[in-house]
User: Fold these one by one.
Assistant:
Number 1:
Amino acid sequence: MAGRKPVHLTANAKRPEGRQTMWEAIRKLRKFTISELETKTRLKEGALRSYVEALTKAGYLNRERPTERVNGAFPRATWSLVRDTGVEAPRVRKDGSQVTHGFGREQLWRTMRIIGDFNHHELALQASTEEHPVAVQEAAFYCQYLARAGYLVVTAEGGPNRATRFRLLPSRYSGPRAPQIQRIRQVWDANKQEVVWRPEDGGDE
């Protein structure tokens, strides 16, 4: 398995691990300048500023603009965290609007831990909300890959008239962030910051 990526390799704000690094630093600092955030994260200023501005527009941060000059110049702007929503980094666009792509898998991951034994039909139903319904096909796909990666165990094999039943192994619950199925069909655990399954590991049909 791949180890945790060095933080300087997560500098692109569009990548989930880059945003997560920034958000974790913001939660620790609570009040900061861009320069202080750059020192804390070792990420690029442009990426930091882009995400900070998006969080500000979305209402997570408040920007404080100095009104008095010091030694003939205005001090640097500071930001304060005013809406702390927990460990998961907010997913927002540049205009502050929420990114909803991927919500389904987050809901599936949370629901797996709650309901115990399930098939993909039951999981999709329980994970769906009025704002973010989860398709049965999406649940089936996610279960398939999490089983290959060892997060789920089969409790009852499926057949012509019944769906396979699964259970999330408590020992494999790595944290609140849902494992991701990347484009090359490998499974990335955002909590561990590592690839936990690749197609060449076997089990890919």
Note: The chain has a mean pLDDT of 86.
Number 2:
Amino acid sequence: ELTCRDWSSDVCSSDLRQTLDAYAQATELLADGMTLREAMRLLLSPDQTLGNEGIDTEVTFGDWLAEVARKLANPALARAVAPAPGFLAVLRPYQQLGLNWLAFLDSLGLGACLADDMGLGKTIQVLAFLSTRRGRVAAPSLLVVPASLLGNWQEEIQRFLPGLNTLVAHASAIGKQARDGIAAETLRGRDLVITTYAMIQRADWLRETAWDYIILDEAKAIKNPGARQTRAAKQLAGHNRLVLTGTPVENRIDDLWSLFDFVNPGLLGTATQFRATAKRLQTDSTGYARLR
């Protein structure tokens, strides 16, 4: 909707032209098929996508998207999901909410950042989620961890989901094969491959394989978008992405951008756009609420 305040000037003609340009851009996006992630991007920052200088272009929720946004803001509204048989833990109420939320985001094709504090069971929630995907997908998921956590993950899997068919792609487990590559028939039937941040930089086959989920533990490892291991992680190909970290913002709010550039590329705009937005948050009373 465009309202001209001064019909006697050329301003209205200019406003109308720019608004029609924005409409044409929106029409083109819709004709090509807009993903939910792209729609959320428009709703978060329409001025950076369709607007023009001096023009207010507003993008509003439709009924379905409004309901999606309501559930995203309140995970308790997501449909309850039961772990599959063979999952041996009893989830605490907040862990069950976490499982429901992961499944809800998966149904929308959105990646997730699970940021419960250390000790609250991020590993258990991920294993519960992986239990629900067994038998539903042909490709294994890839879990990337610091080398110091390889043993911990194997112990947790053995304790809570022993039926998960797991392969550790690391020299400590399979020697130089971890670097040289694992045959497709060896991966067939696996549910999960576990490797390290160092390995995804060295082993081409990890970046050339199509995975189900790509899961990063201690995801602060990719908080620097220019780091080699961050670039390697973003080259991994998969159906969807999930990161685990107790400190999504460790030193700077920019840390958050790098995580979301991995899980939902484009949702927070470019790094330059996000930095400009972050500066405005300090003076905009609704800024942090909108970012949340």
Note: The mean pLDDT is 82.
